[in-house]
Recover the amino acids of this structure.
């Protein structure tokens, strides 16, 4: 599958930076933000999450490596939501990789950060939209986040 436009070629550079500098929170935050922006175009989502590129793995690695960095968490939640948006194949992959757990952890770790909460709720909502095939664990994470007032 070819990129939707020339801007998608940037994803390779972004992913290289994220993979080379996993411990650098600023690179991870900006990388997640760039991938989210690229995923806003529906035709780009399949390319980003292809076996060749695995942008979702980079985002989850960033979130899991920087649990206390609220800006990494905010951008990571936003990127996961963009990947899942209206794409059942991506939703299934993200659920299999336990993206819902990463989102719920971000929301629990940053209860006073409105943007983390908002982007987290949005990502969970998009994961729940997987044509009724959402595993109970994802529904549970969503309910728990809501019940805890997050």
């Amino acid at each position: 599958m070819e990129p939707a436009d020339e801007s998608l070629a940037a994803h390779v550079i972004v992913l290289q930076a994220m993979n080379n500098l996993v411990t650098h929170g600023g690179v991870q935050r900006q990388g997640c933000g760039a991938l989210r922006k690229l995923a806003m175009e529906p035709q780009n989502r399949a390319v980003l999450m292809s076996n060749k590129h695995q942008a979702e793995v980079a985002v989850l690695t960033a979130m899991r490596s920087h649990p206390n960095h609220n800006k990494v968490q905010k951008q990571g939640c936003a990127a996961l939501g963009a990947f899942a948006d209206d794409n059942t194949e991506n939703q299934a992959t993200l659920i299999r990789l336990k993206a819902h757990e990463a989102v719920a952890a971000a929301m629990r770790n940053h209860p006073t950060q409105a943007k983390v909460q908002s982007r987290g709720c949005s990502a969970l909502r998009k994961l729940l939209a997987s044509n009724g095939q959402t595993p109970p664990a994802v529904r549970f994470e969503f309910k728990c986040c809501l019940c805890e007032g997050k």
The chain has one domain: 6-147. Residues 6-147 form one domain.
